[in-house]
Amino acid sequence: MTDRTVLNDAAEKEYKADCLTCFGLCCVALPYAKSADFAYNKDAGTPCRNLQGDFLCSIHENLRGSKFRGCAVYECFGAGQKVSQVTFGGRDWRQNQELADEMFQVFPIMQQLHEMLMYVTEALSFTENRSLHSSLLEVQSETESITFLAPKELLKINIDEHRAEVNELLLKSSKMVRSKFLPKDGQEQQVRGMEFIGAKLAGKKFRGKSFRGALLIAADLRNADLRMTDMIGADLRDADLSGANLTGSFFLTQAQLNAAIGNKQTLLPKGLEMPEHWRR
Ligand code: SF4
After folding, report:
1. CB-based contact 91:121 (threshold 8 Å)
2. Which terminal residue of the chain has fewer beta carbons within 10 Å of its beta carbon, N or C?
3. Could you tell me the mean pLDDT of each successive run of 10 residues in the chain, 280 residues long?
């Protein structure tokens, strides 16, 4: 693998939010707390005050400037449209209030399932983990089947158990892709919880490192070498990636990039776009 392989068009569409066919589920089902990311407190199941009658956001064009930065970096991975149009067959929670609670409970589960599917699809595009492809295809098909279950059945699945099964394959795939950068005994040092929050890492060389779940909040990663890194679940809020090289890094999402700072000199893996606020 010389660079992150772009997800094919169908997968790209399936695992990307389509707000026009969703009933604003993330803006109702999920809670948020007043913070640097949200302007006020909202309970789960209560519509956000910015949600319009047509299920679109009235401040969509200026989420950051309106103190709703948390929304600008959220990604449902296509779960919103799936729950709205497939699981509940196009019935919305305003017209069908008896479905609302169930719909709001199903949504976060579907979000996790779609996130897993996106990573598994990406792992299937690697060549170094070919020996895992049949297991990945199996878990992909199993996960896909779950996403088509009826709401009551979906609510019964043990999502943690399923995630653990998927994670094991993603971890193995990551090591295979990064094998030439790992220590000879294959035992790499794990990034510890908070060690990178606000860390001064400008110009450092991290090629082939795993940042799985790392808290890189406000880390200074300007001009850092982040090629071929595993970025799954890394928290990049306000991390400064200006001039950094992320070529070939994988399990990196657009939402993670949207949460970070960067500039026109930042090199990105194929298939990801430079966030608008990096252009200013
Ligand atoms: S601010 Fe907009 S995107 Fe965020 S929760 Fe409210 S309606 Fe949804």
Report:
1. no
2. C
3. 55 85 97 95 96 96 91 94 97 95 97 97 96 98 98 97 98 96 79 81 96 95 97 95 97 94 96 90
CA end-to-end span of the chain, whole Å?
A: 32
Burial degree of 79 (CB within 10 A; 0-12, 13-18, 19+): buried
Atom of ligand 1 nearest to the CA of 30: 5
Looking at the CA of residue 42, tell me the nearest atom of ligand 1: 5
pLDDT tens for each residue of 81-108: 999 999 999 999 999 999 999 999 999 9
- Ligand 1 pocket: which of 19, 23, 27 to mutate (most atoms within 8 A of CB): 27
CA distance 28 to 56: 12
Identify the residue whose tokens are 């890394």. 234
How many Å apart are CA 280 and CA 271, to the nearest integer? 21
The reported pTM is 0.92
- What residue's CA is closest to ligand 1, atom 4? 71
Residue 16 Cα, ligand 1 centroid: separation in angstroms? 17
Q: Which two tokens stand for residue 19?
A: 């707000």
Within 6 Å (CB) of ligand 1, which residues are found? 27, 48, 50-51, 57, 59, 68, 71
Q: What six digits make up the tokens of 195?
A: 């060690």
DSSP label at 86? Answer: I
